[in-house]
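Crash report, auto-generated. Payload:
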Amino acid sequence: MVWDAWGIPAGHKPLSAQIRGLLAQVFGVSGDPVARRDEGDVPLRASALSSDRRDGLVAVVGADHVSVDHQDRLRHAGGKSTPDLLRRRADGTQDAPDAVVFPADHAQVLAVLAYCTEHAVAVVPFGGGTSVVGGVDPVRGRFDAVIALDLRRLDAVSRVDPISGTATLGAGLTGPRAEELLGAHGLSLGHFPQSFEFASIGGFAATRSSGQASAGYGRFDDMVQHLTIATPSGTLALGRAPASAAGPDLRELFVGSEGALGIITEVTVRVHPVPETTAYQAWSFPDFETGAAALRSVVQAGAAPTVFRLSDEAETGLNLARSGDVGGNAVSGCLAITTFEGTAAHVAARSAEAGALLAAAGGKALGDKPAREWEHGRFAAPYMRDALLDLGVLCETLETATTWANLANLKAKVTAALTDSLGGQGTPPLVMCHISHTYPTGASLYFTIVAKQLDDPIAQWHIAKQAVGDAIVAAGGTITHHHAVGTDHRPWIPAEIGDLGVRVLRAVKQELDPAGILNPGKLVP
Amino acid sequence: MVWDAWGIPAGHKPLSAQIRGLLAQVFGVSGDPVARRDEGDVPLRASALSSDRRDGLVAVVGADHVSVDHQDRLRHAGGKSTPDLLRRRADGTQDAPDAVVFPADHAQVLAVLAYCTEHAVAVVPFGGGTSVVGGVDPVRGRFDAVIALDLRRLDAVSRVDPISGTATLGAGLTGPRAEELLGAHGLSLGHFPQSFEFASIGGFAATRSSGQASAGYGRFDDMVQHLTIATPSGTLALGRAPASAAGPDLRELFVGSEGALGIITEVTVRVHPVPETTAYQAWSFPDFETGAAALRSVVQAGAAPTVFRLSDEAETGLNLARSGDVGGNAVSGCLAITTFEGTAAHVAARSAEAGALLAAAGGKALGDKPAREWEHGRFAAPYMRDALLDLGVLCETLETATTWANLANLKAKVTAALTDSLGGQGTPPLVMCHISHTYPTGASLYFTIVAKQLDDPIAQWHIAKQAVGDAIVAAGGTITHHHAVGTDHRPWIPAEIGDLGVRVLRAVKQELDPAGILNPGKLVP
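Recovered output after restart:
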């Protein structure tokens, strides 16, 4: 990915005249995009890694796989949250890891951890670098130096079991590469988060990622059958069966461990045959509550589609769900997207059952076109954020989840916190929301926030983020449904698991990482 | 439950003439049932609890709720594995907890744990007492005394949320009582393990129980939304949302914690409306592998029934799945049971899709009768075990799980280990097996073993159990799919989670239970 924005250069495109008109009208923003700095010209903090340490790491992974190169360091300087991107675009010296290390395999990861434990070097595991919560920030903690441990060379599919529907994937495989290699076996993982094009298998596991097809294939944590984990205290190999009663499920300590308890090097996941067929069907509901109740009726009946989403009135009105027509022809009500994948018989049965329930709950069928359009543009939103940021518009997303009964309350409280905190700074926001992940007992809420930038947009957003985090916790939601904790959500972890839960996490960390080198400042308060 | 057998007296009935004939023919066993001892006459180890300690506990829960009564102690002397029952039926002094304490609520559980930590008394949490792995054995560890902490008074349904489909249940509620209280709201939990009639909600959670309707409603660990846990270090309240990425899922440390890390006092579970309708359909397959492949095709298509079972040739031949006709008219091939619950539309759609797949995979539809018969007798098998034990027949069950690709191998290895180890003692067994829990990536295997008893049947079974445990681990299965660890499976936990995994468990236990009073000798090696 490019160093100061999302994705690859080819993905970036200017905003349409329609959107620019809208921005001028709503926020009074009409400037030209800010020129980007050339990557080579960016002043970078000098590497704090001594030549001794560098030699020590070279002895572990080889000279070609330890880099203090300017570009390598800059491209491992952090993730892709809006504050991250604003920091990159700001003038001044950029922070970055003191070196980037590229281990070849699990054994080298173990050896690097042993070396760094002995020599007091912090280690930030790095997959696709798509964190939007500060998860890959080069935090040194109490150490003099920090390295990014880039896992891209762990890119093998080492075992495929088409009978059981499992595959063992290297942590460094990106989403598209994993799908390509599985596709050669007629298989698919079916995990399509918005970060899909760049994020890694290890990252999906370490952050409890959830993809757009989660209603059909489950969250990534549901898919994980087995994990291999390197820690300073040795190797963990967890998961012996599809299900077990052999005590606590320790896998669940490491999915979501964000590199703070160990480094996931290999993941055995559930896969499925490439779907025989896919059906698309969009729906319109008069309002969000009616739509949410309709989604609930389907999920609780056991008839969930593969993709199941509902945009609220604001998001529907701006066509944010349809990348080809964002900001275009206004649409009223709330748009829902369904897709159904599988065998022809399964798709026919499931789409008929779900469709009948959605219609009975007040839905109006819109045909397949809006659903196909959504699918076509589903990875494009982060590129649009870059274009907005360039124009002086603040744009960020956040997400939470709660029970169905609490969903409207949580949505109102989050919206109010955003409106009050940004409005209070003189920049009233547009707040849009959708449900993108559904469960029998509740659903996620994903918010997109757009406002005019102030002179210090990082501080501007920090105020809003603090208010929203407090509002989410007070309203009974989880601080994050699928973006993970990183640095940004760490203040709310005690509210999430209690002080005693924090002590449990610390006890596990102490056992596995007694020197505390693993991803300092992330996850564990 | 009665002290020396399963269940209640009304459930016990003599074996049919057909079965007795079969037993005489196969094992040469033809005696009359052994007379049971009167509960009051059983010599019991004297209580080791000093009067000071007893007074201390009375101060916490009240005089009416601390018992050193003979019957109370005897009925908390252990679980219901075959070795447990054989020990009870043996002559000689019985071991038992030194007192039974009945706390009223979470606060009293916390206070009892604080008291026992301070005064060095071991605590065995006790729900329904149905453990078949030694999970409630009165093990003192390094302490002078042990109490059974009976949670039956924690029997409230404190919250019901019919919108979200959740209910908050006291840990001491039994299965039938929970269903009764939920039924008043038109709701059901749908968790029906063989222990259903006596086991408790807290026990289901603490042991990762899995019910006969797991294909439809999931395992109990899937149902758990929130846990309240009392530990010597304080209270944990875990689970804020239907799904979360807020770090490791600490709930998964406590489902399956078997009272060794904390005591679950309240569980919020997913519930569903009492099904509108239930469809029953039995199937016959020519052999187990064909049947297993058929089940796999259905689960992997996303079309699983609510109940989904397949008996192997031996189990089918003895009609073990049909309590009304056990040992009766021989049936060939392999019997599969399906039931479908839910709305009429869901049942119609799902049963049609699953039925088409089963037929395509070589299944022959047998109509609803065998499935209804299975349901009618589904909690009766443990009573039959008692009758067999009385006649000098050894009868025990064990279970494991693995991937679909490894299922036939694991079944063969377990069968061989049982046949060799019991045959080697001159008592060749009948080994029957069924699949009772299915997943996209694999399934459970549940074995019933019958053989002639030797003079020391506990030692006889111990040899077989050791051989089977080693065989399961060597063949890649999990040491237990739903019976839990207790004392009996503890030797294989290092094989299950590795030495480093054991260190993680110990670190968590040390943090939460520094004195080590919680269920000594169970779970943690």
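Post-recovery validation: DSSP finds 18 helices and 19 strands in chain B.
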